Amino acid sequence: MPIPTSLSLVRHRTPTLFRHHQNHHPLLITASKHHQNQNQSNVSRKQPPNKNLLRAKKTLTSKKDFPTLSPILSPDRTPTKLSDSQAIGTVAASQANFMRVIVTAETDKVEDSSSSSSSKVGTELLCVVRAVLKKIKRRVLVGDKVVVGSIDWVDSRGMIENVFQRTSVILDPPVANVDRLLVLFSVEEPRLESFVLTRFLIEAESTGIPTTLALNKAELVDQQVLSDWDTRLRSWGYEPLFCSVDSKMGLDSLASVLRDQTTVIVGPSGVGKSSLINALRNKPNSQVEADNWFDPIMGSKWFEDQRVGQPSLLKVTKQSLAQYFPEIRKMLGDNEPATCAFNDCLHVGEPGCIVKGDWERYPLYFQLLDEIRIREEFQLRTFGTKREDDVRYKVGDMGVKQAEPRLEPKKHRRQSRKRINQSILDELNELDDDEDLSGDENDPILRALRNENL
Ligand SMILES: Nc1nc2c(ncn2[C@@H]2O[C@H](COP(=O)(O)OP(=O)(O)OP(=O)(O)O)[C@@H](O)[C@H]2O)c(=O)[nH]1
Ligand SMILES: [Zn+2]
Predict the structure, then answer these.
(1) Which of 116, 147, 166 is the last residue before a domain boundary?
(2) What CATH number should be reported for the domain holding residue 136?
(3) Is residue 285 part of a domain?
(4) Is the C-beta atom of 11 inside 6 A of ligand 1?
(5) Does residue 310 sit within a domain?
(6) Ligand nearest, relative to CA of residue 305
(7) ipTM of the complex
(8) d(Cα 273, Cα 279) in Å, to the nearest integer?
(9) CATH number of the structural domain spanning residue 341
(10) Most buried one in 75, 171, 237, 387, CB count within 10 A?
(11) DSSP 3-state of 281
(12) Per-residue pLDDT tens for 378-408?
């Protein structure tokens, strides 16, 4: 089995975002679109190696996020009073200074739209963000639940007045309240390949966001191939959903898994991400008429995608890698925290290590461990860092901000690793301040690393 060593194989990962909403007014939410020629051979060279991390952190709450001026709203609460010119909505797309918001409720009583006679639910509003929110650095992201005010229902315009507290944020692309990652591959064209798939799965696992694996273009191979993959992937610890946008196979199961969730779809180029979304949205042969979650009002303008790069595994450390392999988690007995015979065991065949080598992806684990080791040693040489001590991004430990000590200015040289991490964290935090995240200039990791090199 050839294992590709070139990362360019997966450079076209395209997260695609959409929301299935219970109230039958689904939201396709995306960030701005960056069309990019797939055949452009210089794409990977243009993309710096650190750019493409699927970064995630839990929503953090600090004092500065709670100015009395405009208190942040708890996720499930609607403001007590909404006037006729106010509504609750979800940010579906952001373009320059404008946000497209889909109305989900127009008074405090109609969150459950099944009982609603509201005709405004589902309306698309073109919004600007209230200046004070910018002043207090409260960034509005795609996926955010917001209060829109000053609504002109005729012109479908409004102003975002406040943002509800987020349940999660991923930073590349920047999206709030992501409930699920859908890792989408195809069995053929392009052919499913275990190492590339593993990279995507590890990256997805490292966000801590629930992940579903789906394999498209199932009609291109015979049943035996599907069943072999099924067995194989189950041995990895996944329950793959097989589907075919072309033959419509498996789309209903997929739709029900994704229902009522904000999902980011990630996968290599050409596996059918856009096709899948279009198919789910239109679903002409929907078996249950009432379950036409992708309401026709969701025109194609709501479907956009944003290209980011390959999984960089930048958050993954030598020590954390093991926990992103379900096989290893299982061998360790699903303990929390998982333990081996040794503290800090890397599970590379030490006598007494619980993790034996009798599983398919063991060589891939080694390969990734090696890649991460090389990266960490590079960081050590370049930045004088320590290694595992500086793990900042673990599963379930994405709320890194609170734990991070502020730097004392005179200790910069000695604490260079801390300085770097602080810098990265500061940049991540400052993400909230950025107006435009589309360019490399605004990549927080990249900027942090650049700053370190000054
Ligand atoms: N045979 C087959 N082809 C499919 C299926 N689904 C999508 N395709 C085709 O695969 C090609 C790529 O589909 P896209 O939806 O553009 O793939 P994507 O993942 O969005 O690709 P990028 O935009 O490059 O990231 C298109 O020619 C689709 O028509 C399927 O189920 N079977
Ligand atoms: Zn071990």
Answers:
(1) 166
(2) 2.40.50.140
(3) yes
(4) no
(5) no
(6) 1
(7) 0.99
(8) 10
(9) 1.10.40.50
(10) 171
(11) helix
(12) 888 887 754 434 433 333 333 322 223 333 3
User: Is 190 found in the same domain as 292?
Assistant: yes
Instruction: Show Cβ contacts of residue 121 under 8 Å, excluding neighbours closer than 6 positions.
Output: 23, 25, 103, 104, 105, 106, 110, 113
CATH code: domain of residue 277 = 3.40.50.300
Q: Which of 302, 336, 369 is the last residue of a domain?
A: 302
| pLDDT of the residue at 353 | 85
Backbone angles phi and psi of 428, in degrees to 5: -60, -40
Is the distance from the beta carbon of residue 139 to the nearest atom of ligand 1 less than 6 Å?
A: no
Q: Is 37 exposed, middle or buried (0-12, 13-18, 19+ CB in 10 A)?
A: exposed
Range of the domain at 209: 11-22+175-302
| Residues facing 68 on adjacent strands | none
Considering every ligand atom, which ligand is closest to the CA of 319?
2
> What is the Cα–Cα distance from 14 to 181, expressed in whole angstroms?
12
Do 295 and 189 have their domain in common? yes
Cβ of residue 272 lying under 6 Å from some atom of ligand 1: yes
From the number of C-beta atoms within 10 Å of its C-beta (0-12, 13-18, 19+), residue 188 rates as middle
Instruction: List CB-based neighbours of ion ligand 2 within 5 Å.
Output: 340, 345, 347, 353, 355
Q: Are residues 437 and 386 in the same domain?
A: no
Q: How many domains does the chain have?
A: 4
Q: Is 269 in the pocket of ligand 1 (CB under 6 A)?
A: yes
The alpha carbon torsion through 84, 88, 90, 91 (nearest 10 deg) reads 50
How far apart are the C-alpha atoms of 61 and 211, rounded to whole Å? 25
CA–CA dist 386, 380 (Å, integer): 6
